[in-house]
Amino acid sequence: MLAHEQLKGATSTLDLRIATSSARPVTGHVLILVHGLPLSLGMGRQAAGLLPELAEHLANESGWIVATGTLSGVGGSTGTFSASQWLADLQVIFERVDQDDRRISLAGFGFGGSLALALAARDDRVRGVATFAAPAHLDYWCSSAEEFHRAVQVAGVVGNKVDLLAPEALRDDVLRIDPLGSIALVPPRRLLIGHGADDLEVPVGDARDLLASAEGRAELRIIQGAGHQLRADPRMVATLLGWLDRHR
After folding, report:
1. Burial, 34: exposed, middle or buried (Cβ in 10 Å; 0-12, 13-18, 19+)?
2. How far apart are CA 130 and CA 244, in angstroms?
3. Are the beta carbons of 86 and 12 closer than 8 angstroms?
4. Structural domains present in the chain
5. pLDDT tens digits along 4-54
6. Of 83, 73, 93, nearest in space to 135 by CA
7. What is the pLDDT of residues 66-94, one digit of tens each?
C-alpha cells in the first residue's frame, strides 16, 4: 500500500509517499529513500521517478515501512535546489516518520547518498545508512561553479530563479556536505556502500574512499557491469533487501 501526502517545509511543500506491506507483518523499522540530482536536461525534475515503485517493492519484501519524498524543485515539490535546502527537506521527512519508537535508516542514491550521510552525522537517531553511487568528492562532482550552476538550471530543479544561489555560493553550499567527514561519524551504526563497477559519472574509487573514511566499518558491494543508475538494478535491490533483513 502506498499512501501520499504533502509536507510543509520552511520554504517548500514536499511530496511524500509512504509504503507499507500488505503481505507481511509491518515492523518497527523505517527506511527513507533519498533521490539524487541528475545533472542533465530535465532529469532533475524526474530524479525520484522510480522510487515510489521501489518503496512498495521493498516494503512488501521486507515488512519495513519505506518512505520516499521529492526534495525542493523535484517532481511535485515546490522550491529551488540548494544542498542546504535539500538537507533541511530531508530533516522534515525524517521528523514526519520519527514516531512510535521507530528505528529509522536511510538509503540514498547519487548525491542523495551524500545527503543521507550528512544527516546521519548530525543526528544519531539515524540507525543506519546505505549509499549507492554516492560521490565522495563533491568538488570533482560539481566541476566548476559556473558549469554546476548551469547544470542545475538545465536539470529543472529551479522553481524561481531569484531563489537560486549565485554560482560560487551554490557550489560552496554543496561542498559543506562533506561525505568523507560525515561517514567517519556514522560507525558503529550500520553502513552499506554500493557502487557500479562501470559508473562513468561517479568513479568507483569514491566508494573505496568512503569505506576508508569509515575505517573499514562498512559493507562494500561493487556491482560488476553496473553503471550509475542503480535504482532499477535487481542486484542493487537484492543487496539492499539483504541489508534490511540483517538490520532487524
Report:
1. buried
2. 10
3. no
4. 2-242 (3.40.50.1820)
5. 999 998 889 999 999 998 877 667 899 999 999 988 877 877 878 889 999
6. 83
7. 999 999 999 889 999 999 999 999 999 99
